[in-house]
Specification:
- The complex is a heterodimer of chains A (455) and B (163).
- In chain A, 25% of the residues lie in helices and 22% in strands.
- With 455 residues, chain A is an alpha+beta fold.
- Chain A has three domains: 186 residues, Aldehyde Oxidoreductase, domain 3 (Alpha-Beta Complex), CATH 3.90.1170.50; 159 residues, 2-Layer Sandwich (Aldehyde Oxidoreductase, domain 4), CATH 3.30.365; 48 residues, no CATH class.
- In chain A, the strands form four sheets. Chain A has a seven-stranded mixed beta sheet, with helices on both faces. A five-stranded mixed beta sheet of chain A has the order 9-17-16-15-10, sandwiched between helices.
- The longest helix of chain A has 17 residues.
- Helices cover 33% and strands 17% of the residues of chain B.
- Chain B has a five-stranded mixed beta sheet with strand order 2-1-5-3-4, covered by helices on one side.
- In chain B, β3 and β4 form a beta hairpin.
- In chain B, α2 packs across α5.
- Chain B is globular and about 45 Å long.
- The termini of chain B are far apart.
- The chains are: A alpha+beta (455), B alpha+beta (163).
- Chains A and B meet through α1 of A and α2 and α3 of B.
């Protein structure tokens, strides 16, 4: 890696001596000797295994749950249903005022996605827990399901999540997260070209090498310790305390060693139910996703559909950008209302465009709830924006690098979010990339600077 | 559950165990012997995190029945170097930032050890082939491949160690 100090000379006040220097990880000796202790690298006498009975349907009403046969399987210790969970309905981001609570720890009246957890079986062995889970009898009334964000928003679409009452998250009274700046329609009317394209992505699974899981162990004095591979220890602690109606000091989280996360271990799914199971049985409990569960039920990156309509002048200036973006939250909010806000904050990309109109919808469907993953709300938007930029450049026969330099933010420009640009560096990044790729730039692009817009 | 006796060599020491029939070597190592250096990633033979060395060859311990290890020589990451010392592969993985979350690292190092034992001077393609059964999700394969090549070079020329 190279640290180019020749940019922004005079404006850099720090020496940044660590940038570009390789430092050994503090935990790497443990990694190469096998001594790093992941959550599952522990043994506890009397450990119970928790296996979940999951919905085979995308959308169904639960008519009845019968655990009688499952309870008779040798080795089964206890079976938990929604009735056992003190505050069964929660939403992870209630901690940052996202509401309403919209997700059950254990489903009871309805299932809203395939693989949703309904009944937790606790047994002396994994095999017994699995056998018993297969013997839980649940009668369903299958309901029509919706899997497409735009279908879900049409009148008459099946209602996915009653806690919202509509198939979208409401932002301060609005049906989506919006950005309004200038007048896009007027700019489209005056533009030399108007280009409208649609982009979409599928959900993406993090597929960590270590699957999601935890072990909860009863300590002395009615306290419980949870060894977890969560990426969000405090989210987990707070949500568990709320779900179990338990004082914080009874709950202890131990973690920080994660065998691959990428945002996939930010949700709070395994810990509350494992805590509850340990409290009710007074025994250590392990709840670990199988690889199949990791793929089927852990939150993926949200699928997105993005419409971009641009007004473009022959000289290369983008004069208007209208974006309609749909985030497929799946059946529950988890981190998607926040991710959708990030998407709105990220549009129209790092370009100065005088007229911008953005609608970002957080939509509920009967797909697996989506959540955090590396730059969620931003990455797919960037893909769409940059493919669009290439198309625009090609349309007017302009070099794609020079097209980006021309439209890039300069310090002092006004962003669509009514915030003045500072610390812009896209022009220099494109120049450096062109340099490395031996990509010829015209003199105007070579001498362009983020510090001021050339006249 | 029926138990059967198994005698094998584990990290150069004689090991005698009663194991449940049908149980895996992975389960014996982790749940019975507390050797957690061998990781469980998928329990279905697809990720390579549970790789151990049996009679000089890499094997997936999640698909290996414990009872089939009778008379075999098993090496896990814990047995790669004497206590307090590091195998050149371990040193190279440390120096080359070839272990980020560390979960695939034991399997990667053992798969690489098998390669270097039979081929001390591998090409890059041969390294890629040797770790093709081991999935890494965070470090990225490039630093891992580079570390294995660096270790191979160091092992061939022990007198000319890198500074």
């Amino acid at each position: 890696m190279e640290y180019r100090k020749d940019y922004f000379t005079g404006t850099q006040t720090q020496d940044l001596t660590e940038v570009g220097v390789t430092r050994q990880r503090s935990d790497v000796l443990g990694h190469v000797t096998g001594k790093t202790q992941y959550y599952a690298d522990r043994q506890f006498a009397g450990l119970l295994h928790l296996k979940m009975v999951r919905s085979p349907h995308h959308h169904a009403r639960i008519k009845s749950i019968d655990v009688a046969k499952a309870l008779k399987v040798p080795g089964v210790v206890r079976i938990l249903t929604a009735k056992d969970v003190p505050q069964n309905i929660y939403t992870i981001l209630c901690l940052i005022q996202v509401e309403p609570n919209d997700e059950p720890v254990l489903a009871f009246d309805k299932v809203r996605f395939k693989g949703e957890q309904i009944v937790a079986v606790l047994a002396e062995s994994e095999a017994a827990a699995r056998d018993a889970a297969a013997k839980v009898k649940i009668v369903y009334e299958v309901l029509p399901a919706v899997f497409d964000v735009e279908e879900a928003l049409k009148p008459g679409a099946p209602l996915v999540n009653e806690y919202h009452g509509r198939n979208y998250f409401t932002y301060e009274g609005h049906h989506c997260r919006r950005v309004r700046y200038g007048d896009v329609e007027r700019a489209f009317a005056k533009a030399d070209h108007v280009v409208e394209e649609m982009y979409q992505s599928s959900p993406i699974e993090h597929a960590p090498t270590e699957t999601t899981g935890c072990i909860v162990v009863p300590d002395q004095n009615d306290r419980y310790t949870c060894y977890s591979n969560t990426q969000a220890l405090y989210f987990t602690l707070d949500n568990t305390a709320l779900i179990l109606n338990s004082p914080f000091q009874k709950l202890r989280l131990v973690g920080g060693t994660v065998g691959g996360g990428f945002g996939g271990k930010v949700d709070v799914i395994t810990e509350p139910i494992a805590f509850l199971a340990a409290m009710l049985t007074k025994r250590p409990v392990k709840y670990e996703y199988s690889r199949e569960e990791e793929m089927q039920v852990s939150s993926p990156r949200a699928a997105e559909r993005i419409y971009i309509k641009d007004g473009l002048m022959k000289d290369g200036r983008i004069t208007a950008r209208k974006v309609t973006l749909y985030v497929d939250a799946g059946a529950y909010s988890r981190h998607s209302p926040y991710g959708t806000t990030k998407a709105a904050a990220h549009m129209p990309g790092p370009y100065t465009i005088p007229n911008v109109w953005v609608d970002c919808h957080c939509v509920y469907t009967n797909r697996t709830p989506s959540s955090a993953m590396r730059g969620f709300g931003v990455t797919i938007g960037d893909f769409a924006l940059e493919v669009q930029m290439d198309k625009l450049a090609r349309l007017i026969g302009m070099d794609p690098m020079e097209f980006r330099i021309l439209n890039a933010y300069r310090d002092g420009d006004m962003k669509a979010h009514q915030k003045q640009v500072e610390g812009a560096a896209l022009v220099e990044c494109v120049q450096a990339a062109a340099d490395l790729a031996r990509w010829p730039l015209c003199d105007r692009s070579k001498t362009a600077s983020s510090l001021k817009r050339e006249v | 559950m029926t138990k059967v006796p198994v005698e094998f060599t584990l990290n150069t020491r004689e090991q005698n165990e009663f194991v449940e029939t049908g149980s895996t070597l992975l389960s014996a190592l982790r749940d019975r012997l507390g050797l957690y250096g061998t990781k469980a990633g998928c329990h279905q033979g697809t990720c390579g995190a549970c790789t151990v060395i049996i009679d000089g060859e890499p094997h997936l311990s999640c698909l290996t029945l414990a009872e089939r290890c009778q008379g075999k020589d098993v090496t896990t990451l814990e047995g790669l170097a004497p206590a307090g010392a590091l195998h050149p592969l371990q040193q190279a993985f440390m120096d080359g930032f070839a272990a980020q979350c560390g979960f695939c690292t034991p399997g990667m190092i053992l798969a690489a050890k098998c390669l270097l034992d039979r081929n001390p001077d591998p090409t890059r393609d041969e390294v890629v082939d040797a770790i093709s059964g081991n999935i890494c999700r965070c470090t990225g394969y490039e630093p891992i491949i580079a570390a294995i090549l660096t270790a191979a070079q160091g092992m061939r020329k022990p007198a000319r160690k890198r500074a």
